[in-house]
Amino acid sequence: MLKVKDIIDFFNTPIEEGRAKSLLDLLYTIPDFSRRNEENGREEIDISMITEYFHICQKMCDDLFLTNVNPTELIIAHKNYIFSLPPEVFSNPDGLRHKLDYGYYDFKYRGLVYTRDYFADSVLPIDAKRNNGIFDVGTAFYIGEKRFVTAAHCVKDCEKFRLLKQNGEPILLKEIWFAEGSDTSVYDLAIIVVDDDIEINAFELAEPSILDEVLVMGYPPVSGFNAIQTSETATVGAYQKSSTGQVVGSDTPYLLPLDFFLINARVKGGSSGGPVINNTGCVIGVVVKLPFDSQSNSNNPRYDLMGYGMCLPSKYISQLIHNPIIQPLSPEGGYYRF
């Protein structure tokens, strides 16, 4: 699979034989695009790949990375492109290169299914035993430098907990960070630092905007099932839940001193601590709460049935990184406590 930066590099090379390069020229650089039929000796090409990369090139034209020099050409494989110069090339070349390296435009052009697959190994379950003896599950996600982010309540009131790989193998843990001078019931974030070598894709952070298209990944518990990864769109899945929705509001809830935002992707229980990912593959927030409905009270707590999730913006992750209380973790029978 070619990345956007590969496509840019291809069309940014000198024009060959006095002509612009075509989409077909690009596709022939992909090993799986064509093959020789051994029975009749004819060349067979992947038609779906033509459509896929044509749509990507058209989106790159919209963002001024490419220019289609023969837009009236009816055969899309024969359309010719040349590299353009988007404004960011001049205003922030280092920033543009960083976006290309991260895959910012690949996520944007290929969609949330691609994003979910790309980060499938970066969102992991937390297996915890609560102080009341009940086992529970939460979610954590990787931000690089051996750090996983989760909601503080996923680990704070636990007798012990562990972070599991996709194959169910526990990860060696080192310490846990909470925000210094903050009530974790409000500043509901924690960072788990691991003691293993981690080779998975790390999320970058960004800020939310109203009507952002989002992907939410998590591990809502389902009775009788292990935390197995699945993908669901705007519904609660049977295993790991991935759902899509939109940011629908942003405000400071009553009596809480932090900013939150709401998403209409459905979330429940073990989704807490999961990332809220925008259409460029960046985490814009963390799922931390399920809102109570208007009839809820201390004697009859009732969660909102509309499926909204309350999330802390990513800026609080950055603040936590620069202002942590660090607590070492002690191993105990495959789990950890602090």
Describe this structure in words.
This protein is an alpha+beta fold. The chain folds into 2 domains: 107 residues, no CATH class; 203 residues, Beta Barrel (Thrombin, subunit H). It contains 8 helices and 21 strands. The strands form 5 sheets. A 7-stranded antiparallel β-sheet has the order 9-6-7-8-11-10-19. Strands 13-14-15-18-17-16 form a 6-stranded antiparallel β-barrel. Strands 1-5-4 form a 3-stranded antiparallel β-sheet. A hairpin with a 2-residue loop joins β20 and β21. The chain is elongated.
Task: Quickly list its features.
338 residues, alpha+beta, Thrombin, subunit H, 2 domains, 6-stranded antiparallel barrel
CATH topology of the largest domain: Thrombin, subunit H
The overall pLDDT, averaged over residues, is: 83
Percentage of residues in helical conformation: 10-25%
Number of helices: 8
What strand order characterises the main sheet? 9-6-7-8-11-10-19
- CATH class assignment of the largest domain: Mainly Beta
Q: What Rg is obtained from the alpha carbons, in whole angstroms?
A: 23 Å
Please describe the biggest sheet, giving its number of strands, its sense, and whether it closes into a barrel: 7 strands, antiparallel
State the end-to-end CA separation.
Answer: 44 Å
Structural category is alpha+beta
| Total count of strands | 21
CATH-derived architecture of the largest domain: Beta Barrel
Strand content: 25-35%
Shape: elongated
- The low-confidence parts are 228-242, 292-298
